[in-house]
Amino acid sequence: MPTPARALALLALLLAAPALGGCGSLLTEGTADAAGLAGAGIAGAVTKNAAVGTGIGLGVTALANAGLMYAERRVHAAQQDRIAEAAGPLPEGTVGRWHSSPTVPIEADEQGEVVVSRVIGGGTFFCKEIVFSVDSGSGAKVERAFYTATVCRDGTRWRWATAEPATSRWGALQE
Questions:
Q1: Distances (CA, A) of 98 to 29, 39, 146, 157, 163
Q2: Coil, helix or strand at residue 22
Q3: Closest to 132 in 3D by CA, of 173, 88, 72
Q4: Could you give the CA distance from residue 95 to residue 135 in angstroms, rounded to a whole number?
């Protein structure tokens, strides 16, 4: 049975390894596996009671999954900010480009195009409906997925303003 320090070091290693590849499913599975190992190490050092050990293991797994979901929400919020920033200054019907490089490498860099399809509001309440693409691959093998959203001006900054149209892209992990 690993010591708590070893279990935590293994947890850190397992969390970092899949992140370098940007593979979400591997990261999720790696997080659960690492949390299980860490939980077992901590429980083994603290108690011999199976019920207490199970509780510690479940708690560590839940904490690790919550941490991963928080990190994913932060990455998705940054992607949404990049798309909103690209769309904000565009006139209706004009196509612009967006790019996002996560500071925490749990997902790959992404890019695409964005077009303003309609302007909504006026005065201090100014929003734009947009259509954006997410490009995967490179060269002749580029595949695109398309999504719609609304962005609004908040002072001098453009911000993401929709939840539902992008759920197929980000699921429930939106800010």
A1: 30, 41, 13, 16, 19
A2: coil
A3: 88
A4: 14
pTM for the model stands at 0.61
| pLDDT tens-place string over residues 119-129 | 998 888 899 99
* Six token digits for residue 84: 């909103």
* Residue spans of the chain under pLDDT 70: 1-47, 49-65, 67-69, 71, 104, 163-175
Residue with tokens 């499913």: 25
User: Which H helix or E strand runs over 52?
Assistant: helix 50-87
